[in-house]
Amino acid sequence: MSIYVIASIYYMVRTRYIGTPFKNSLTKEQLKIKKESAKIRSNIFYQGIGISFVALLFFQPFSKCN
User: Rounded to an integer, what distance in angstroms lies between the CA atom of residue 57 and that of residue 21?
Assistant: First the structure.
């Protein structure tokens, strides 16, 4: 898990400042559409985290692991 987290942070930092060939090829209008889409996907992701958190509290699937 640590390798994945570190690699994800590295990827995020590197692509944010340097960009990617795909992102660099987009027009201003396309970048606006991409940004709006990213906001929607981000909201869905955070909703999933919230639902998962509540479900884990409710079902407590790891309670027998003590």
Answer: 43
Q: Which residues contact 49 (CB under 8 A, 6 or more apart)?
A: none
Mean per-residue pLDDT for 38-52? 96
Q: Are 4 and 11 in contact (CB under 8 A)?
A: no
Does pLDDT of 66 surpass 80?
no
d(CA 66, CA 63): 7
pTM of the predicted protein model = 0.67
Which are the contacts of 34, defined by CB distance < 8 A and separation ≥ 6? 23, 26
Burial annotation 8-32 (CB, 10 A radius, 16+ → b, else e):
eeeeeeeeeeeeeeeeeeeeeeeee
